[in-house]
């Protein structure tokens, strides 16, 4: 049996059969259904077919993840939501999802190898850090023309495919809300600045202070590593600062929850003694005591759009068209969700 | 460059080089280090090498997951922890992780296809249900001699590789604890019985009641679908039962948290008006109000051991030895973690 027979039965060209079965490019719903029905009647399995029809097709979308020993990466809301969105879209397009854990200590990163050994047709890079090795690995992908997409990370001076959220605006609105509540001394627990999204948050924080005419003070800046523990470790430091800050904005919910628990242990209550806002609007934010005010980020949708962007790019390459490669950065909106932790009795 | 050169430099046989680079079989740490060092010096990349050395090797371990549209599967504690453990072990053995979403509506499941199209060398099956299609797909894998391992699911009458937790004992201890607190009318919110782990929990629940001489009553059994919403939907039903149960044991934390929140909405408090125990000991259990008593399950370790079991099996196949294939079921212990929700004022 051959692609020819499927094409014949569906009444389309062989190229169209390939495109449908590889999910490349826009195809009319009706045509797609006809091809899939024909393939089914002839007892063809699309993912098996894909390998035979198109050269250098693995049928896999790769997701490159930072590898940190013993960290339960899938249990972090941020990664798990993005992966859920990626998984949903990958499945819809008939691909499988290959997870690739990078080990920085090997020295040079070589993402192109995954394409050269035909492990993936395109890849999404999560948790990229702004380092020289990373920049070189991405430059190499770009030079080779391998389709890739960054999620939640941008590299200044480069024009890579990317899906990001508007963390400047998200942080701006959180801090603005605290200012409107009357808070003036607002601590900021940020993550490491090698992530562009940490730098975005700092920018939003400053913007809100500037607009309100409140001085930006470096003694109110704290750095954690986005873990609950790093937030907990800062709880006492912040509580003992003289004068104690009115409020704290934390760059993710995990650190905020660490603060909340650390404060509770010394009798300080978020939403009563000190206002607290987290970031991510994770499932956990809804069930803490008090419930955590947080900035909602559409991580699931970001994962979905990253896959769509890659599909568009692969189809554009196949059609020798530049049309799809114009809009290469998707920037999605965030939203402040107010709960009890950001209340504060300023008397 | 060839495997020969690496073998020569490391002073070992070519077969040993293959085994090290494919992570098959037990190899002395020293030998392994020597081979890896030689490969590195000769600028060989193990995962690229693997493809050349061994026929029918993809270098991928597959994880077959149930596909449910719009459910954020990676955001459930259960899946995310198992996947973290799988990812950790897969990485250690130099493999990559291929996620395969099954779509039940396609009718027949064909897991063997993933092996025939050389997408995976072995696979782990998560969230398997006890259905005819599933049993046929597994029988087919077994017949073909493809290495696979079930996690958290067993099929009576079959002897497949599997890693499971002792859910009978876990449930038994939870219900026993409630009985020791003086509770007699103990509701049980279970998940669907197509999962062996749901049936295990029911068995543990009955065992504890039987031992205490408390009658088993079907009017105290409720079924959810392991989602928070399904727990919340049962909150009022249970609260309005006459007489109201003293305590509820829920088969996972999500459903327990749904109950807790549903009760809170009608003024009923877990740990005061009614005792509540969940299952999984998820991160969220620690931060609810009140904190949730729960049964800890070593999901991360279960994922890790599933990979190890597959590695042992693949090495046993290569060595034509039966030694590794004797112990095919790993049953890991659970542990009750007592927090405030299981308190109950029985006056």
TrEMBL record, chains A, B:
Start and end residues of each HTH lacI-type domain: 1-55
Residues of the signal peptide: none
Alphabetic keyword roster: DNA-binding, Transcription, Transcription regulation
InterPro entries: HTH_LacI, LacI/GalR-like_sensor, Lambda_DNA-bd_dom_sf, Peripla_BP_I
GO MF entries: DNA-binding transcription factor activity; transcription cis-regulatory region binding
CDD domains with a match to the protein in the record: HTH_LacI (cd01392), PBP1_LacI_sugar_binding-like (cd06267)
PROSITE patterns tied to this protein: HTH_LACI_2
Cited Pfam families: LacI, Peripla_BP_3
Keyword Transcription: yes
Protein name: LacI family transcriptional regulator
Species this protein is from: Paenibacillus swuensis
């Amino acid at each position: 049996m051959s692609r020819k027979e499927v094409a014949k039965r569906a009444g389309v060209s062989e190229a169209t059969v390939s495109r449908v079965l590889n999910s490349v490019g826009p195809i009319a719903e009706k045509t797609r259904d006809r091809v899939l029905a024909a393939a089914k009647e002839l007892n063809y399995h699309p993912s098996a077919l894909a390998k035979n029809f198109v050269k250098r097709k693995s049928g896999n979308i790769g997701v490159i993840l930072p590898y940190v020993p013993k960290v339960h990466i899938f249990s972090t809301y941020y990664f798990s939501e993005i992966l859920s969105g990626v998984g949903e879209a990958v499945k819809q397009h008939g691909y499988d999802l290959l997870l690739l854990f990078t080990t920085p200590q090997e020295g040079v990163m070589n993402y192109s190898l995954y394409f050269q050994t035909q492990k993936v047709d395109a890849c999404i890079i999560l948790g990229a850090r702004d380092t020289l090795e990373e920049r070189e690995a991405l430059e190499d992908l770009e030079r080779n023309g391998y389709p890739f997409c960054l999620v939640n990370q941008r590299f200044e001076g480069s024009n890579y495919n990317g899906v990001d959220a508007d963390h400047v605006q998200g942080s701006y609105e959180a801090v603005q809300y605290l200012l409107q509540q009357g808070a003036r001394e607002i601590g900021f627990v940020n993550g490491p600045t090698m992530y562009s999204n940490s730098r975005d948050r700092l920018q939003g924080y400053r913007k809100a202070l500037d607009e309100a005419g409140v001085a930006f003070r470096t003694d109110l800046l704290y750095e954690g590593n986005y873990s609950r523990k790093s937030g907990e470790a800062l709880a006492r430091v912040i509580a003992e600062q003289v004068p104690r800050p009115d409020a704290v904005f934390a760059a993710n919910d995990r650190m905020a929850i660490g603060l909340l628990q650390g404060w509770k242990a010394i009798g300080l209550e978020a939403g009563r003694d000190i206002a607290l806002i987290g970031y991510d609007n994770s499932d956990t934010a809804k069930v803490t005591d008090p419930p955590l005010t947080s900035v909602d980020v559409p991580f699931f949708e970001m994962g979905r759009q990253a896959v769509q962007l890659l599909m568009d790019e692969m189809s554009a390459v196949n059609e020798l068209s530049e049309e799809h490669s114009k809009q290469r950065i998707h920037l999605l909106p965030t939203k402040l969700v107010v709960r009890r932790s950001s209340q504060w009795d300023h008397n």
